Amino acid sequence: MNNVWQSDWSMMAPEWIVLAAAIVLLVIDLALPSDRSRRPLAWGAAAAAALAMIATAAMIPAEPASILHDTFRLDAFAKAFKLILLAGGALALLLVAEWEPKEGSPHRGEFAYMMLFALLGAMMVASSGDLLTLFVSLELLSVSSYILAGLRKTASASNEAALKYVINGGIATAIMLFGMSYVFGLTGATNLGDIARRLQETNEPYMLALAFLLLLIGVSFKLATVPFHMWAPDVYEGAPVPATAFFAVVSKTAGFVLLLRLLVTMFAAAPSEGREPSSLLLSMQPVITILAGLTMIIGSVVALRQRSLKRLLAYSSIAHAGYLLAGFAAMSWAMIDSLWMYLLVYTLMNIGAFAIIAHIVNETGSDDLDGLAGLYRHRPLLAAALGLFLLSLAGIPGTAGFIAKLYIFIGLVVTEPGHYVLAAVMAITTVISYVYYFNLIVQLFFRPTFTAPLGRLPAGLSTAVVLCALGTLAIGWAPGLAYDVLAQFGHFGDFLP
Amino acid sequence: MTFLSLLVFSPLLGIVLLMFVRKTDAKMIQWLGTAATVPPLILALFAFIQSGRGFRLEQLDEARDWVRLTDLPFLTDTAYVIRYELGIDGLSLVFIVLTAVLATLAAVASMLVKTEKKGFFLWLLALEIGMLGVFAAANFVWFFLFLEVTLVAMFFLVGKWGGFERERAAYGYLLYNGLGSALLLVVIAVLIARTGTANFALLHEMLHNPVAQGQWIAPLTEEGRRWLLGGLLLAFAVKLPAVPLHRWLIRVHVEAPPPVVMLHAGVLLKIAAYGMIRFGVGLFPDEFRAFAGAIAVFGVINVLYGALLALRQRELKHVLAYSSVSHMGVVLIGLGALNEAGIQGAVFQSVAHGLISALSFLLVGVLAHRMGTTDINRLGGLAKAMPLFSGYLLTAALALLGLPGMAGFVGEFTSFLGLFQTKPALAAAGALGLIFAAVYSLKAILDITFGRACDRQEAVVGWRDPQVSAASLGELQGGVVDLQAKEAVPAFILVALIVAVGVYPQLLAAPLDAVVETMMNGLGG
Hints:
- The complex is a heterodimer.
- By secondary structure, chain A is mostly helical.
- Chain A has one domain.
- Chain A has helices spanning 13-31, 39-58, 76-97, 108-127, 131-149, 156-187, 192-199, 205-223, 231-238, 241-267, 280-283, 285-303, 309-330, 335-364, 375-378, 380-394, 400-414, 420-445, 459-477, 480-487; strands at 65-67, 72-74.
- Chain B has a two-stranded antiparallel ribbon with strand order 1-2.
- Chain B is mainly alpha-helical.
- In chain B, helix 19 (407-422) runs antiparallel to helix 20.
- At the A-B interface, helix 17, helix 18 and helix 20 of A face strand 1, helix 7 and helix 8 of B.
């Protein structure tokens, strides 16, 4: 244990695979003549992510362990969320393979390996046991994401997206780092487990509460929840569609991983002001509840007014982040379980929708929702698939979205007293979300078409759409499939170090 | 596959087969779509007849593992196990038969739908699966699942095949019912979370058996139960609908294609009545007492408000829409009475109104197709041109006003009988609505069948329905065609059923007896 070189490096197998693939692809991209297509690189990257997923799945039965002085933890939580991150990453890379930039030279090569680096960062967040590794891997994710947002070098929207992303991300990082400094100042430790133990003995409730709030605000940037949600629509709109899909899915999942790793581990047992048995985390419940409520309301109400598909999905993703945050705010025994389930489902239905939108943007060059008009008439299967994803996003039974939402609802009301207000807000915002999801369905199925018929869906996109559609339907009608996987993780009993 | 699954999902076969039919082959689609509704009808009638001969319906219960939400160590082995469970009793059977009958008749009536028949039948069959499933479900999750299938199917049927303002009507339907469903979902989530089960029978046990209450995962206070029941009742009040939550119903009645309204007024509104009886009275009998007075008051408001507004309408669809509001009020009156007669009356009224409104909208569909309008001011003197049709229309009006010997009378009489026993003053006020019913239904129908003969050319000027206008305008040159055999057969079947229930209510009462008795026991006599 003391000698770094004697550590059990095989625990990091998924990370090694992703890292090696990224470096190999980078070298190939440099060596390849500039007139050769970079499309196979993205396929290679997707295969690497899928391979890493298999490696992660193979490690599920292993006992929880940690290496490198407990900075890298491989517990059930890490494995479970890495599976979702890798699934989202692999599917997003399939979108990258079919990306057709409208301007300038194609940069498929860097698109693929930058996304792999971002994915690596997200995976490391899931496995971090230390503030330092947590921060470094978060930065790896963030910096790679900034580059992804600005990949359309000559498009002003893309540049704007990248710039906004960098500035907002920079501020959020600064706030989070500031919060971490308080924690370090109070405990003198960077290891999450050590911090949790030492915080139990501190007597600085106000200082701790301040640290908690700063960290929460910093994390809310990655989650795209109130108060740090404003960047999302602009960045989602300007970035290339595969990058948008990556931000909406992988980045957000990483954000929730961060939220749980950072805040729950450190503050679950920390003392709060006043009544002694209460923990700081529980005393902060009202704050999180209010943020969750606001996020749901703002996300779903503003989405009503959007014409751009990407912006619409941006606000819808804010609303979904609100649902997830509600699941967190409930702090019931179902918390991590329900978040995992929701994020899994969210990944499938969102990437599926983004894959079809990517196709429409590729073909028409615009992402106005008029582009969907009458899609049913010349591409009935495509329209049916998008309809399925939209119904799932709306949480209609028979799709995976309902199963995940039901579990969040159950988590909200299982405690006594239940979070009825939050449940009511969630129910009402769900109905509000019907308006914009069904508005797209109206475009798809009811309206006459006035654009040229779309071409066939390319291989990468159709693979992604088929996988996502199958997953959405399968979990919707046989949720046992997903819950059996979830049961493998033993309710994350080894989550707290 | 066992019996109930087969019954619920048999229209799926039609959906699959329809996928392979060419879009343009309208005849084949009509034939196949109608044939697909026959298997559930046969199975439902078979079950109905068998149960009449003493077959115990519990034997049809089926259950299959579906999902286990969590296996936390401190929970029992059965906690949070949600299974695929179907099961029926006399109450559900009555509604299933109603659904199966009306679905077949609506499919026959769909011959007047001319555009995109394939999609229409796909959704119509999906709607039938949803409706059958709602009544056959034996747990809350599957009940909700099937309920939302009907929601999506109706959105498409109204929004795509409806009249001029179809999308608005579809959105109204979606949002009102979506809100009702969302509220219902919260209630369901609380019940599952606290008890660890979604099964109706188990929930009943958990709520009423003191021993089983020890197995609750988290307690539920008395006040909490009242809130749950309040939520349930409000959710179903939206779907019933109770005034003032009825706006969506009017639009759907007017804009949706007539065969869809047959199912909407005939079955979908009854899901609310079924829900109130099954979950309100069935699961929370003690708490229900506290709400009974309010329910009866809302029932009387519904009856009077609907009847008064129906009096003032000059568009046949509006008259029928408000009469639906009025008649669903009678269901509330029966429930509010909270005695044996009342509950039985609520079910009678649901079935009766289901049959009568299906008949009315079958005829409205024909009228709209032939005359190009359903505006009473533009119509008149039809008795001469369409004697058979006018005869059926008059029959429908008589059934609507509750003529003794017809189904409507049985429902209204039993419901009011119940309320007169417990709250005579309220019942007396509500009974005024029955007089109004006679006025508005006869006035509307007589204006159409007798009165000044209308000019068809003029009638078509006011045409609002793009679905059938082209066809109708094309036929303008010829004379008015009376009810044809294929239209008269479903109308005749409906009239026969209305009269059968009216003359021999025991037909319905027999399967209900045991259920109502159990509920009365729950209510404490």
